[in-house]
Design brief:
The chain has 263 residues and is an alpha+beta fold. The protein has two helices and 20 strands.
């Protein structure tokens, strides 16, 4: 019976939906996380009677045909790249992006990755790095005798060294943005890779046209709304239950038909 296969595709789709929602909820406290949403499409249809079929010599036609659907399929788990809330941390090397753009991160294998997680630290050489030790592009080194560090909204890093009263420039934080940022590939560790879908990185600096600015001592929270995710989870669970009931009903109908033929 076709209903068994159709309902099975529905159960598979809702299982994927629950997996996506659970990942969103698990990352509610992940800095810079962008929530995902599962999207679906209906599968091919079997035409039992085509619309517009001629029904007489006077050219009368069927206004609506009979199309039997075969189920549903998942097509994407797109990310909502909206701005998350900005929360204070009071740490000198925590930086939040307000607006468009990503920090550029240099990986040990030579690749460039991108992130919205601005929770940075200094390594043993005084370089600005991620929590995993990956260098923040284009490479910023803070002197060991720096008394204080200031990062402007435009990404300019200045320090007070020794007994000096005038700040010293030590670097400029770079940023990148994309035509289709939802097309970036997530690789874990709050990092993204450029893809053919995202388009090439557009490089620039904070505050320039098309780029957001920076806020020192703050971090961007995940853009996950707990109420929305719980509501979506309940809806997905109900859809799964209804599809399982269709499977049960189809099984009962097959059993009844089999018993009739045997009788």
């Amino acid at each position: 019976m076709r209903a068994l296969h159709t309902a099975a595709t529905g159960m598979t789709a809702q299982e994927l939906n629950v997996q996506v929602i659970s990942n969103n909820i698990a990352n509610m406290r992940t800095t810079g996380y962008k929530r995902q949403q599962a999207h679906f499409q209906d599968l091919l249809y079997q035409d039992m009677r085509r619309s517009g079929t001629v029904t007489s010599e006077q050219d009368t036609r069927v206004p609506a045909g009979i199309e039997i659907g075969t189920g549903v399929k998942a097509v994407s788990t797109a990310r909502a790249m909206s701005q998350g809330n900005i929360s204070p941390t009071e740490k000198d090397y925590d930086i939040a992006i307000r607006g468009e753009g990503f920090f550029r991160i240099e990986m040990p294998d030579g690749r460039t990755t991108y992130t919205r997680d601005g929770g940075f630290e200094l390594n043993a050489e005084g370089e600005l790095v991620t929590k995993d030790g990956y260098r923040v592009a284009p490479g910023i080194q803070v002197p060991q005798d720096a008394r204080s560090v200031s990062i402007s909204a435009q990404g300019q890093v200045q320090v007070l060294v020794g007994g000096a009263n005038e700040p010293q420039d030590v670097g400029q934080i770079a940023m990148s943005r994309f035509v289709n940022k939802a097309g970036l590939q997530a690789i874990g560790d709050n990092l993204f890779l450029e893809t053919a879908a995202s388009g090439p990185a557009i490089e620039g600096q904070p505050g320039e046209a098309g780029f957001g600015n920076l806020q020192q001592g703050f971090l961007e929270e995940a853009n996950v709304n707990a109420v929305t995710e719980i509501s979506s989870l309940i809806a997905a669970q109900r859809a799964y239950e209804m599809n399982s009931k269709v499977v049960s009903a189809a099984d009962q109908m097959l059993t009844a038909a089999s018993q009739m033929f045997r009788g």
